[in-house]
## 1
Amino acid sequence: MGAAEELAQIAAEVQVCTACKLHRGAIKAVPGEGPADAKIMFIGEAPGFNEDRQGRPFVGAAGQFLSELLAMAGLQRQDVFIANVVKHRPPNNRDPEADEIAACGLFLERQIAAINPRVIVTLGRFSMAKWFPGEKITRIHGQPRWAGGRMIVPMMHPAAALHQPQNRPLLEADFQRLPAILEQAEREYEAHAGQPDAAPDKPDEPGLEQLSMF
Ligand code: URA
């Protein structure tokens, strides 16, 4: 199966998924969207009010801001794949719970495997925790690390920067560095092929290496 067919298959499975309690209160599932050969994938938290109604990721205020941030990196929405850690809206936009994240985890894994992006940008703490458990976004935002043969770049969630405008310049600066990060990922990915994808138990283990240039 090609990447586009696999993504369509995943989306079809997400539409009918009842593996956790979130499907009960949701209107539409939000599998994610973007080209199957995207070089950059963004992973947010969960669908909100507008996403739940439209079945598309990041279409509300945070999504509008994400489009502006992408433009600062010379990118458009249609250039990148956008997904979330969980694919149904949590009630009243509460945080996704551990069992919900686990139930949706294989969908995200399969999306990543199908797209095989050079760079994954995690938006907010829930997607960050997949690769950087126990880390603080204030400490590591914008600092790419290699994992699973690709660069993982933790960034603040756009909604957090909208709520706390003092964080906006930090997020904008992180996005402005994305073209350089992608260039580096393209140059160096072969040297990192076959790396373990999971976060290491010890931060100085070789699987997840901190880059010195940033
Ligand atoms: N916030 C997210 O994390 N994801 C969306 O799709 C929308 C808002």
Note: Residues 200-214 have pLDDT under 50 and may be disordered.
## 2
Amino acid sequence: MTKFEKLGINSVSELALLIPSSYEDYRLNDTLKPHKNQLIDATVESLYRAPSTIQITFFSHNLGHTLTGVLFRPKPYMMHQFAVGSRDYYYGMVECKQGNCSMVMPKKVTQIGSIVPKYKCGLRTDVMWRFIKKELRLECLLEEGIPSDIAQEVLKLHFVDSLDENSSEMSASSMEALKYIELYNYMLQLSSKRRYFEAIYTAQSDFKEWTKSLPFSLTAEQIATIEDIKNDFTKTTASKRMIVGDVGSGKTMVILASAYMVGSAKSILMAPTTILANQLHEEALKFLPNLKITLVSSKSKKESLEEYDFIIGTHALLYRELPTASLVMVDEQHRFGTQQRNKLEKLVNEGTKKPHYLQFSATPIPRTLAMIESAHIDVSLITTTPFTKDIESHVIHKSDFKDLLAHIKGEIAKNNQVLLVYPLVEQSEVLEYQSIEEARAYWEKNFENVFVTHGKDKEKEQVLLDFREKGDLLISTTVVEVGISLPRLTTVVIVGAERLGLSTLHQLRGRVSRTGLKGYCYLYTNQKSSERLDEFVNTTSGFDIANLDLKFRKSGDLLKGTNQSGNQFKWVDFVEDEAIVTRVKKDLNIGG
Ligand code: ADP
Ligand code: MG
């Protein structure tokens, strides 16, 4: 095994990131430095053994006086370092009391004259130091593509020529160098994984005519995203793009515009549920009257799909023979397994050529993360929604229950709908909130048209459809994060809100006020105060919430049920380091 393997690294720049945990100053000095580690040039004059300590009398030549060395609980091998009459270099912590100075746990040092870094890693300290001196050289870092200013800065952390003993903090420029290298290595690796294939379809297309046919004008970010895709279609390599936009940001229009541009060269769209596939199908029929469109579900007849321009379906698509398509799209991509997504992509392959591939996700990610990800997949962000959603959010407690009931009755009187989300209870748990089963009796007794569903409910799609038509109150667990639109839903009450991750809360809140009605979101909690929930109610932007999520995760407010974003960075901070990400992107020549 090489030393690189033992350390679990692949390159010199990764070696540079294994910075010392401390330094030892092996330079000889003729003044005594109490309370500090210090090197002495000394002759061992005598040795005295007590039951659990050994005392050594040193004569220090550099200081010009004697000094007592003290070893606590000495191990046998330590003894060889202190032969009476011999002169050597010793290093240890110097303490002085009433004019008597001692060195605690002195150890013999052979190589002197420099500041030696100490490493906490899989190698012995001296082995590691020799390895670093051999491998970690400026020219090696430059060869790996690290810019010279960064390389020089990081080398300073290993090869130190002075110690600022008053400061234990790393300088801003050292920090920046570490962040840079960490990002550089990560993004380089990502981009090397990206494979380029010839596209089945390459064309100049346009969507301006189509936008004229719409009942509303597209938002600037919808247009910018469609422009990105239009530009992808002009390339001879198959594109791979992720479109990330909040719930309600109008991603469907981007899907339809893409299918419009491809036209008879054929598009396929996969959605995670039958309801959503139906909804997309209806919208496609409405806004793309000139395309031959079909809907595929597990119940569809197995007729040939050859004649259609735009095939929309659930994962039932994976079990059908599909015509060669120029474009493949996956809506609500985060709800599919990687395997299902890949399978779809494979199904529509023609020889070595590939379709353009667009994935749509409603899980907002911080902009910096999107930029990092762009090393292996292009990313378009839609951060605004066509209507400014008017949603009031409040953190509420038991004492607010009466007001809450009055509000719910008021909304129902206005023919609006209310969603009550209860925590998912595992049997082993003792919970301070009611479960759905406990709560439903109350609501069913006091309200009409109450519908209940939960995650394992096989009928949940039907329950949701029935509720949409004739319900007042829907009681559920977090299942309703399905993309079905409930136009009359104006209020969501989330019981035990502190148990859920901010992104889940955001998804749930995104269910209400989808058509511009005034919306309300109540976070019901038994917690006296929560900064996390307080900050949540102050913003409705999913992108702000993604940043908040990072902030609270970093501050240790880790909750069960939050989906980890897998922060594999030790130095990089997604919220603060956009400028460094930008530089790395530029240096690595990653576009988009
Ligand atoms: P998403 O899929 O991103 O959650 P949708 O595509 O379902 O959002 O859009 C939400 C609602 O906004 C739909 O009713 C849609 O018709 C409407 N919509 C989309 N784009 C616009 C726009 N530019 N102006 C007005 N309404 C829009
Ligand atoms: Mg959608």
Note: The pocket of magnesium ion (ligand 2) is lined by residues 251-252, 331, 483 (CB under 6 Å).
